[in-house]
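Support request, please re-run this one:
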Amino acid sequence: MAVRRIDQDHTRFRQIVRGKIKQNLKRFVSSGELIGKQGDKFVSIPMPQIALPRFRYGENKKDGVGQGEGEPGQPVPGQEGEGEGQAGENAGKHTLEVDVSLEDLARILGEELELPNIEPRGKKNLRASAGRYTGISRNGPQSLRHFKRTFREALKRQIASGTYDPDHPVIVPIRDDMRFRSVQTREVPQASAAVIYMMDVSGSMGREQKEIVRIEAFWIDTWLRHQYKNLEVCYLVHDAAAHVVDQHTFFHLRESGGTKISSAYELCLQVMRDKYPVAEWNVYPFHFSDGDNWSSRDTERCVDLLKTTMLPACNQFCYGQVKSAYGSGQFKKDLDQAFRGDEKVITTDILDRDGILPSIKDFLGKGR
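Re-run finished. Output below.
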């Protein structure tokens, strides 16, 4: 089948857009501009430096159309000049917003960070269509025509209309008699994942720190939705106590109390037991903080919770330490010391927005 020219142009355009995204991925991630332009399945990508057609004035030695008396820029007779002030000589900047699917965005992220595909560890009894040609339809290609059903329908029609002759049994199917094999959908279990985001919302976590977490969470979600048919997200916030909140509250709440990290881990365990049992879900807890905890005793409690209950029930535990002017950063040091060599515990330092991509690579680079 011949490929239409417009299809070739569309494919070429998509390749250009894909190249632009890969070229500017770091800028898109650090700015966070894609998050405000996302839909259910697409995001709007601003494409810079789109050259628009324009006329240029040039010196033409020969007479022709447009030649004659007058100076460049002078209005034609009967037409007034437009605008005020002097004309500039610099070209304007133009941008074009292009819709890109979240699937394509996830593939680009995976290619750029060299992320391996995740091997699911559990099955949840969710449903998806798995095709088998066990159904019958009135429409379909000739290659799937069901000869027995077609013959039966033609025979029934001729008997009903009185045109069937038992002495000369000639059965001639018409279009309405045709029957075809069709896909009969059935429901099969599919692997599912749950992401549990935990964030310190004490006074030391400012607006910029929350924005960094928001951007990183968007890209983590994009990759995991590409890997799993079903993804559920749960948000927990904590200062001295922990609470389950919605997405908007998670990224905008700010408290002024102290910090007790074990309260978040205890609530996370409760959510995992109640909603995401290990036999059915691939669970990914992500914790973001500036590294302050109220006491070393509470840090010991966190380490004990991770070792005895959280790690056996999740794919891996990820801790991102966002730098703030008030955080000591001690908690990451304690985790690194307690879980040195344990592949299920990943910790990263996120010093600023440029640290988001390296942090995502550290979190998702093992394919767990």
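The mean pLDDT is 78. The longest strand covers residues 124-137.
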